[in-house]
Fold each of these.
Amino acid sequence: MLKWLGTALVLITVISIQACAPKSQEDCGFVQNVYGERISWKSDVPVTMYIHAQVPDSMIPAILKAADTWEKTAGRKLFNIVTSTRYTGPINPHKDSVNVIYLMSSWEDNRASEQGRTSVYWIGDQIKEADIRLNAADFGFYWNGQTLTRAAKADRQGSAPVNIEALVLHEMGHVLGLKHKDGAGSVMATYLASGDDRVNLAGADQTALQCEY
Ligand SMILES: [Zn+2]
């Protein structure tokens, strides 16, 4: 009897999954879930992002500018970057329902070439949280011709710095759900060279954004 019940339940589960299976979509530059649906915030409410207290004040205008660049293309507010207060929790990006931009003074040795990383958490096709890490261990940052920080690691302090606006622009693309796109001058290219002032969206980025925003 128990065995029969188990079989029946399994069958019901399978049927319900098939009945609800969503339709696969074109990726349009976005990360897709296991069903092939594009993931994004699916909301008109701007994404509230906090800035960790470790991020120097001098980086805030660059962060706001990067958000503004995406918003100009979308024609609406996408981000609510909180500047009235700072996030003061531990420098430990994790799933906590708070979107935070972290400046990391330590970074995995085997990923030292990575300038930044964005963790995106989603349920179904809807993003629930995104955290940005900026690698201040291996890289120094500049903006508008001014050096803002030098690499925390002594052996990397003399290396060429990275445009913080260009880096945040790329990571914010991930926050919105975009994946890497190499070529076409995209700001979502996998690599950002030191000294590259890539602060304008390419046509490909604008087209991609409009699929979801
Ligand atoms: Zn990336």
Note: The mean pLDDT is 91.
Amino acid sequence: MIPHPYSEDSMKDLNQARISKEDRGYLFRYPIETSSESDYWNLSELPARHLRALLDLLSPTWKGEKVRIDGYRSLGEPDLVHPLFPDETREFGRSGNRLELYEPRLTYVQKLIQSLLSIIQFEYKNERIQIDGFHLKNPAQWLRPGGGAADILAQAATRCNLKCRFCYNLGSPPALKTTPRKAKEEFQEILTRIAYYVPGSKMGLFPNAGSPCEMLAHPYILEILSALRRKTGEVLRIATNGSQLTPEIIRALAQYHPLLVDVSLNSSSSTRRRWLMKDSHPEVALSAPAALQSAHIPYSVVIVPWPFPSVEEMVKDLTRTVAYSARFNPVYIQISLPGYSQWFSKEALFDREEVWNRLKAEILRLRTVTDCPLIIRPGLFEEYLDPEAVDAPRLIGVIKNSPAAGAGLVKGDRLIAINGLPIKNRTQARSLLGMIQDSPMQEASITVDRPGGPIELTLDLKKFDYPFNPRIAPFAGCVFPSSGIPLNWSEQLRNMVLFKQVREVLILTSTLVKPILEKRIRENFFPTEVKLHMRVPPNRYLGGNIFMGDLLVVEDFINAVKEYLKEGLGSPDLIVIPSSPFHMSGWGRDLTGRVYKDIERSTGIPVGLIECDPIFD
Ligand code: SF4
């Protein structure tokens, strides 16, 4: 018998839990620090410190246009200019505060109260009163559109029962470290979040989750799923290491359709899984694919190939694990290419380039012998060196029993028309397929280019079976290597350059995006008098062998600008950065909670962001 961590209540009657008025009763509490010297604000510096804090939350405008300010004059002393960002404040530190990442207005409130406590004493009935914190009076005021049920479920992923050799949590930056609290307290907070959640608009309380652990290890997870399911009909996506997926738990999960379970199997060998994940009961996870299939629960298999004890051993195990997983009809198999940060290891562990290229070669080979889509994460790695390929509407697979599979689409097909509309690129193909799938249409025609010549096929959108379900997989079952790079990137860049009338632009991007961005710039009209320079900042903050643009932080960008200036090529009048490293909460913060505006404060050069989503798909 495998011990499981669930509370007895949850196993007896999952439907007993009801969201009562009390379930809204969790208090969202925040401390006020008053002891440290550095928190002491004197009266004369109060306006500057408040203004700086406010400018981390908003941009002043005049007649609708952004205005940059770097100082102020007090109405009481109109002759004196107070600089907001004198040299000593230009090198702002990392925040490391999770709240700053997700709801910086609350850190502003904290600072506001702290500053008042520096200069006044609160009283009640003539008696001094001390305070050391506050709580939200009305959490409904703090609702924001977000990731829906997924944001709420992420709050449960605070602990893990395994100890993977590659665990990304060992390499998380401090702001994202997860420390579990008492399970009951976390449960009450989650129930309150569910109570305030507005499913239609996906308005929810700001998240507070760190880097996710194993959500099925939460003692109250079944009650949480039960409460969430009563609140919303959304797909519930459960990421799990598989060690909790006993037949009883799978039976319990089957009550919460629609579901998509991502099972981190990592290896189909019980010996290797035991070694890799310190899983003392590997047979549970290894039985999960068959059991999920029997329970009709759609799932994907996740594999992190770890290049130890040798690259060859890793590749052999990947080959076996893909073959094993594909037997039980997962929706797709995701292969996450391995990496590590400086917090994970100060020593160099493996050559990323060598390992990733070896894995890519093997995955491309496996695609020729596997009928389940094999997705490389990050998908852009598969094709970034061939910018033409990134735009191509080419399939790397189709989901079994999907409308695409029923129509006869196969991997390698290049879509050339949908319902007679010529398809020029991947972005267009994905958006048209998405629209068609979400529409009441019964059928669509699709023309594909194949070695034997173009062929027209018919998608029967209402005909599908397990493992496909339109609620859990987009594009009628077509699978592309990655979402590609949206075409409007270069338009945004051009508009920014023209609108701001700049002459010299420094674009900071990533290794994976640079080739395609260069191609787009070549193809799009840019005024010849504008000089565009492109640089790839190294991921020095995360370190290790990380090289993803989405994981760059403000400090990395500042260092890259300084290094560029040292090259002596001149001083740009605009820095342009894709916005994805600052995507986490919609407040322009990087992984450390630091606002992107610090780049312009530190370098003195204005920064423009190209709006884009993270590319890890
Ligand atoms: S299952 Fe996930 S959270 Fe747990 S040890 Fe492995 S990688 Fe870390």
Note: The longest strand covers residues 77-83.
Amino acid sequence: MSWVFSKLASKFGELRSSTSTLPSPGPGLEHLDVSDDESDYGSEDSLTSTDTSPSSDARSAADAVLRGLDVGTEEPMHPADVLSLLQEGNDRFVKGTSLAVRRNDVVRREIVDLSQSPHAAIVGCSDCQAPLESIFDSLPGDIFAFKNAGNTCIHANGSMVASLEFCTEELGCRFILVLGHRHCGVLLDACKSHAAKQKSGCGDCALNGLQHDLSSVIDQAAELASSVSLISGDRRSADDIVKLSERAVEVNVFQTLELLLRFSETIRQNVRSGQVELQAAIFDEASGKVEFLGTHPMQEELLESSTPVPPWPTEKGKASCCMPLPKNCEVPAPKEAIETLRLGNARYVAGVSENTQAKPGRTAIANPFCSVLACADVRVPVDTVFDMKPGDIFVMRNAGNTCTHAAGSIMSSLEFSAMKFGVRLILILGHTQCASITGAVRACMAGQAQSGRLSRSLGKVAQEAADQLGEGVGLARLSLCAVKLNVLQTMEIVLRHSRPIRELAQSGRVQVQGAVYHMESGCVEFLGPLPNETEVLVDA
Ligand SMILES: [Zn+2]
Ligand SMILES: [Zn+2]
């Protein structure tokens, strides 16, 4: 056993006693029974308990006592304090004494006025059913919630690196947490493919990159698992695969830490100077508990490394994507899916949401009916905005709902959702008061040059908005225009640069649509498909 494995093994040894096991392997992603635990989220008694909870005023007062709501004027917290904040919030979530209120007009109005200085940037997984805000019972604006398939960082030029650099450099955030989760459908699927020696995705898919990244995780997990004789030999039973995926969840969070350090000189510098702390943790759905795993065991070495970005695996030239769609999946058509989201948002706006906040205890693998790419600073969980049960939506979040690289983790997550879960609607969701976009618009108005990958991409959108609206337009109008243009730009990038999604769109199976969440009113404005979609699909 190599040194890194022994270090990881000793780290995980401490965990063993407290971790739960995954559910017995179900029939697979295409058929999942969630009916038995419906009561966890939407039952009448949980609604009643909401009614008997303290009034919004009492809760706001409690929040203020806890730690003033005016986060906008605060300096970002010291990493050690952020860790305690997250631990305390998670304790409240586990005990069912969460303080944060999300379906509440008062809080919604309050958070609109807050400027963004998030204390923690958290990278979670898209198929984790509890929103990150709920898991840490965080107050609005406390955290930037990033999400992709498998809480990964698969490309140095992808949006996770760009988002985290933006969050630490521009917003001053000092704590980055990579959060895996025990019942991860993405890793379970990767373990199944690995065991069957299946190749998922062709050379042209971004999904191939995710698969490549996860297969190295699973190789390490298999080595670890066999070293503690969890799994014997080459023939793996269904039970072995579940054990293997549990191990893979642990290896994967450390791999993401490693890749972030390897890929970003900015993050390395900030960690080296003590400005930023980079830690891993795992969320256990059954208990609701987050196990904090600390920093990477080889962080010192990784900080010294200047490893060049690994080459991107490509085998171009395939006629079409080779991956089969899931069988027997009854996923609603795009039109139906939009209608479901529209009705849910209307309930949210009217204050008659049917779905309560996430609670510990849900352990089925998610079975989403659509995918939504939203911004990390939207300050409300996407499930809440659409009044959906956790797990109904495959949520991806990064800074500015962008797609900065064709082979990055957002593209591969979108492909994963369309090809593994069979979702037929991909919604790109922008929002008003977006820190990323307002910053770009301000810089554009002041004629400042943009540095940083994300700022450059958003700077282009800001310039386009300024060109469209002409002289003498205020920051608010310009920003709203830029928010919409940015949604359209992301839609176009997805259709132009993802071969599988383009093919699914051409055949009418999948639709890419846009929307803007108006934070002031809670309303979602649906923008429909790309106006020039036909052209884009033809000449891509
Ligand atoms: Zn997952
Ligand atoms: Zn935003």
Note: Residues 1-8, 11-73, 311-320 have pLDDT under 50 and may be disordered.
Amino acid sequence: MENHTRLANQNHRIVYFGFLHSRIVAILMYCSMFEESRAIVSQKLSGRSKKIQDEWKRLCEKRNVVPGQQFHLLLSGRELSPEALRRKVRRIATPKRVTPNLKQPSRSPATADDMRLLEAVQEFEVESGVLQSPEVEISKVRRKLLQESVSATTSASIEHDLEAPSTASRDTSDTLTVLAGWKKTLPDVDHKWISETFFRMGKRGPEFDFTKVSKLWYQPPQPSLSASILNKPDRYFAHRFFLWMPRHLFHMDLVCPQEECNGKLTNAGVHQKTRMVLDVDSFYNMAGEYLSCPKCSKKVISWSEGILRQLDNTSRNQFPCILTSKYACDLRVVRLLRQRTLGNSSSAVSKVIEEQHGEKYVTSLESYFSNCKSFQSSAHRGFFGIPHFQRPPPQPPVPRHRWFMKVYQLDVINRLDYIKASITSQFGAILKMDSTKKITNKLAGHGRKTAMWATNVGNEYGQILMSVLTEGEGASLRPMIEGIMSRYEKAAVDPPQVLYVDRDCCGPATVHKYFENWPNISIRLDIWHFMRRFPSGCTTDKHPLYSIFMGKLSQCVFKWDEDDLQLLTTAKREEMILQGVVNPSEKDVRRNLSSTELALHCKRVTRGTEETQTLISGLIQSLDGPKGCDTLGVPLFESERIAEVWRVQQQHVSCIQDPEGVHLYTQTGTLKKGGVSLPVYRCARGSTSLESFHLHMNRFIPGTLANDINFQVFLLDGLFRWNLDREAAAVRTDTRERCPRTYSGPLKNSVNKLSLEILGEPFFGDFRPPGMYTGELIGIEYLYSQTGKGFFNAIQPCGTRRVAKTLKGFGCFCFVEEKRIYRFLWNAIAAFRFGTS
Ligand SMILES: [Zn+2]
Ligand SMILES: [Zn+2]
């Protein structure tokens, strides 16, 4: 009786849960509780399967086919109407020829339904917690289903990763079909899916199937999210795959890159090794095709520079990385290295990359473990034995920061022609020349303490025409100046009108004597540098009258343009009224004008030599001696020193006057203030823009020291980017459109050409491709040409002709005495230019 009550209760619960999940489940569960009903069910099942088998046999005989795997799926115990059953049998008996889709997981619907059914049973079992006997049955069914799916996957599809305990130890490496070379270079987790994607078993072992190659990028199969499927580690840790086969994919005729050969390259199969490429958050693998030349019978890899050079821009830009001897580096990582700002050293970038890789790996690890865990929980509930969980693969190590530096060097070397051409294609009507010592201290290693000055020449937009390191100022600047003059001449650009300098404006040492070709250029002393000479006559710059003196000094030199000042005053007055100030007086308004507002909206002119001389004399007299003492009696000036300073500087007052007939101000836009529209000016006077460049230059070169190659690489790329940034700023603010940010000139050029043909207008309206590189020496090359460290002296004894030639092609990096640097350069260049690894 008690037993009956219990059973009735169970009955009740089962029916209840059955409604919750599905009626079929409930009936199945209920029936499976009793010996008799189980017998009936199995009898019914066997009767039905006999019926199907008969039908099947009949069909098979009629069509002369052999029963296959799918037939068994029919027997998985589902209720089907006779029509549906017949339809299904007919469909299986006349199978359609389907090419397996390797990308989209496609489980057969029968399996999916059975799985869902079982999941429902599993949940039911957990909730009721009383069922014992059916468990065995269920686990049997489950195991059978799993086995079937696994055996189904081995035939054609790579999608199922269902793993029954019985097949857990199945060794996949036996069935692998990849080339021996690939087996060595590919990470283990990638063997399976890559072999399934690209290889077929030929008569003499694995063969690469070229017919399977139709695109550049291949994604590994993703893990299934179903809790009832145990994914193997490769579903989480496999890498993307990049296949570089320009001849096969772009159908291009490529010629042999060997000198004077020009044989037409033919396909020589797939290259025996793959390469790992460092990407932002993981590695990916890359493989290429091998090409052979029938003429000289040499072989060449598809990613060697000789091949890449032959491709058109669009195809070439598909190649995503820079190769070094061990790893290759994706351009997305390289771009992280390019931005030359504070704290952007290669070690900082390598840390960022390491973190990205680490986070991605650990995230995959967590997903994998949690998948294992859910499977393990099911196993504990007795559905099946605990499977053997595979260990996740180790994380591939991220290279050290030195490697990043090498990659960056290669990147700059790769773009060197363009960078140099871009720098020597800068011109300007108002030039500035200024020197700094700060940066030269950073030069370490071979070139240490050889440079005294870094001299830069800029234009009115703040762009840099030239930057060199020199032993000294004066005569050592002559070759640079000659280079710039010939640049103007070759490009038929009008000579500049003014040159602002920080010293040597007049007298016997004047720089004017170097400008033989430009006799009409007026040399002007930068006013800021002129004013900076007075503080040496002051006792201290902490004196309360010091800032007043410097402010007044500026007023002695400049006066504001009256019209501009009047307009600004009106605008400011309106603004103050809008802010609630009642009837402000003119004096109030002027007092409220900030120096930024004045500089932005008002032109300034110099007062003229005589007026400035009188004013400065008066200013010094008014603050000299006891008149300039603070409350403690400390005077502002040291009388004798200031008198001497003024005596010397007096002659330069004429050098700071604005040159006649030169427009120093350009209106770049307008701004509304208090309802009045005000002009916005850019001033071309003086060398202040170069001072800010000097500050930035200090940041080009990260850290405190850099050897000469690094120094040169940083300098060239830094200059290039600085100029492009200024170019964007030089465009009028009100007409400027936001363009996608890219520093790649060839890319912009290519897009412009295409856009012109397709849309009828260029995409980058302001882009002008640079001219040819003029051959002027930049940066350290200039210094070394002065100190007599010849270009190829050191290369001749140890290098082959080809190296010398290649180095000459780069037109930089002379100093190869240090073996280490030489070896690096050779490896790097060889790896990149000739594709040897
Ligand atoms: Zn050849
Ligand atoms: Zn002077």
Note: The pocket of zinc ion (ligand 2) is lined by residues 505-506, 525, 652, 655 (CB under 6 Å).
